[in-house]
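Sample intake sheet
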Amino acid sequence: MDIKQIQDLIRFVSKSGVNEVSIEQENFKITIKTNEAPTYVNATIPAAQQAPLAAAPAPQPVSLPAAAPAAAEAAPAAAEANNYITVKSPMIGTFYRSASPDKPSFVNVGDEISAGSVLCIIEAMKLFNEIESEVSGRIVKVLVDNASPVEYDQPLFLVEPK
């Protein structure tokens, strides 16, 4: 498989909406993963095939700029959350507090919630996923700004359990 075929495969995967594609041949293996995050390409090419590819720059994984602030915010939130339950993001995507800009937020600080209450929406690949509470209690803090990118397992809310 040459670099042109790999690039065509990446374009096809990004347009198709699938999350991951793996191809294995005799001396070649490639895995392409997509999400709202950048596309990562992992390829193992035998030494005989590496020479033609040397002129083309290899795709490099790019880390999201939001990952570092998320880690920095997680430390104070953990110290503050001794008696609180942290509701975390089940996926990578964009966090929204309401169903649309002209609608009110699903929850605000001080609101009482019960298990099954919709807390927010996370958009991933043009799909809007309602995130429901697994606990009953009171919202103490919203840890993410509206329309911000979120990572998997990133804290979203602090809830004081009932």
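Comment: The two ends are 58 Å apart (CA to CA). The longest strand covers residues 118-124.
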